[in-house]
From TrEMBL:
<keyword id="KW-0472">Membrane</keyword>
<feature type="transmembrane region" description="Helical">
    <location>
        <begin position="295"/>
        <end position="316"/>
    </location>
</feature>
<feature type="region of interest" description="Disordered">
    <location>
        <begin position="385"/>
        <end position="413"/>
    </location>
</feature>
<dbReference type="GO" id="GO:0008233">
    <property type="term" value="F:peptidase activity"/>
</dbReference>
<keyword id="KW-0812">Transmembrane</keyword>
<feature type="transmembrane region" description="Helical">
    <location>
        <begin position="270"/>
        <end position="289"/>
    </location>
</feature>
<keyword id="KW-1133">Transmembrane helix</keyword>
<feature type="transmembrane region" description="Helical">
    <location>
        <begin position="229"/>
        <end position="258"/>
    </location>
</feature>
<protein>
    <submittedName>
        <fullName>Membrane proteinase PrsW, cleaves anti-sigma factor RsiW, M82 family</fullName>
    </submittedName>
</protein>
<feature type="transmembrane region" description="Helical">
    <location>
        <begin position="159"/>
        <end position="183"/>
    </location>
</feature>
<feature type="transmembrane region" description="Helical">
    <location>
        <begin position="62"/>
        <end position="79"/>
    </location>
</feature>
<dbReference type="Pfam" id="PF13367">
    <property type="entry name" value="PrsW-protease"/>
</dbReference>
<feature type="transmembrane region" description="Helical">
    <location>
        <begin position="115"/>
        <end position="139"/>
    </location>
</feature>
<feature type="transmembrane region" description="Helical">
    <location>
        <begin position="195"/>
        <end position="217"/>
    </location>
</feature>
<dbReference type="InterPro" id="IPR026898">
    <property type="entry name" value="PrsW"/>
</dbReference>
């Protein structure tokens, strides 16, 4: 059976083309399956598979429940008035979970932890410096008026521009710098790598900015607070989920655009500029909305809802972006008959549905999952299943590297 998109030959039983991922059936719903996680739709609000594309359904459920339980405990600490503990835990929940995810899936097996911890620390230091300049050193008077409670008549337009427009723009530049530096390296040139660096940098920035912003809570003599706990619960949920993920997903979109589709990074193109402007603009919209909504009745709750709306848009944007990149890169490679370092080189098994993957696959012919979203950890298991008993690579497969002794694990480089 020949694919209508790339003309590659596929088995008659194939539901998806093994080269370009195109559905081999006329069912429109099948065509909208998300290439990273085929059991989900492209336009589905699914957080874990979006920011953690190397997870399968089982591991995604583990992270989902771990984050839910942690969030409940943090909200419980807030309800008890333990604000220093609650705010610190809320600030670092997503970043630490992301570090664990990267280490768990062994995303870059040469040095997974040093790469992302370095990115986390560099971004955190820059975030702390920018936050100190805006909140304490240069614009402390303006920030006091900006954060003061009262009617909208008391709002300073200068303060609104400083903290809801200028600061988010500078923050987006700072978040992009270390992530883009890593994304330009040859071993990290995939769009999924760019997304990962962007999310890691964005969530790290959010965490350290939160610590500086709520410094008074940590330096207070009172460990426990009894007043305004309902409002604090909304604030903590906003910091823990909405702010962290908006920062992370927005920067992830920008850095993924820098990486581009296919092998090699695209760089500072018009496509990157457009997505960087989107990321910066979304941050501005978020903070302007939160500030203005705070003057309305139930303003904190309205700000939380506003943040969730923006987050939903960003999640869908990432999924559409990743879907297009994975499919377009695969179609281009198939049309040119190029051999990609990320395709399978032996018959092995899909980590998602456990059906056989054909040699030269970019996608599973049964579930349509992209091979590029497979973790290094899973690839090692795939290698064990696929290689001959003596451990030698099959005829025509790339030989192991002479220095490291490692080759394309599981048929996927």
């Amino acid at each position: 059976m020949s694919c209508s998109t790339c003309s590659s030959d596929n088995p008659d039983v194939a539901a998806f083309c093994h080269r370009c991922g195109t559905s081999q059936h006329a069912n429109a719903t099948t065509q909208r399956s998300y290439a990273v996680q085929s059991s989900e739709g492209v336009n589905q609000f699914a957080l874990i598979s979006t920011i953690m594309p190397h997870t399968n359904r089982e591991t995604a459920d583990n992270y989902r429940w771990a984050m839910i339980v942690s969030a409940v405990l943090i909200v419980g600490a807030t309800a008890l008035g333990l604000l220093p503990i609650a705010i610190a835990a809320a600030a670092f929940l997503i970043p630490i979970t992301y570090l664990v995810y990267i280490y768990d899936v062994n995303l870059w097996e040469d040095a997974p932890a040093p790469v992302v911890i370095g990115l986390f620390l560099v971004t955190g230091i820059l975030a702390a410096l920018v936050s100190l300049v805006f909140f304490q050193w240069a614009f402390d008077t303006e920030f006091a008026s900006f954060a003061a409670r009262g009617g909208i008549d008391g709002l300073s337009f200068k303060a609104l521009l400083l903290f809801s427009v200028l600061l988010p723009l500078i923050a987006e530049v700072v978040k992009n710098l270390p992530a883009v530096f890593l994304a330009r390296l040859p071993q990290f040139d995939d769009m999924i790598d760019g997304l990962t660096f962007g999310v890691a940098a964005g969530t790290a920035y959010a965490a350290f900015e939160t610590i500086v912003l709520y410094q008074a809570v940590f330096t207070s003599d009172q460990l426990r607070t009894e007043q305004g706990l309902a409002t604090w619960i909304v604030v903590v949920v906003n910091l823990m989920v909405v702010k962290s993920l908006i920062y992370g997903t927005a920067t992830g979109i920008a850095v993924a655009a820098f990486s581009g589709k296919g092998e090699g990074y695209d760089g500072f193109t018009a496509y990157y500029a457009k997505n960087f402007a989107l990321a910066a603009g979304v941050n501005v919209l978020y903070w302007v909305g939160v500030r203005l909504l705070s003057y309305l009745p139930f303003g904190q709750g309205l700000g939380l809802i506003w943040g969730f709306v923006i987050l939903a848009v960003l999640i869908i944007r990432i999924r559409v972006m990743m879907q297009a990149a994975l499919l377009e890169a695969a179609v281009e490679a198939a049309a040119k008959s190029d051999v990609s370092s990320r395709e399978t080189f032996v018959e092995t098994f899909c980590p998602e549905c456990e059906n056989m993957l054909l040699a030269g696959s970019h996608f599973c012919i049964v579930c349509g999952t992209s091979v590029r979203s497979t973790s290094r950890q899973t690839r090692k298991v795939m290698t064990t299943q696929a290689l001959p008993a003596d451990g030698s690579p099959p005829y025509g497969a790339p030989a192991p590297d002479a220095d490291t002794g490692s080759g394309p694990a599981g048929g996927v480089a």
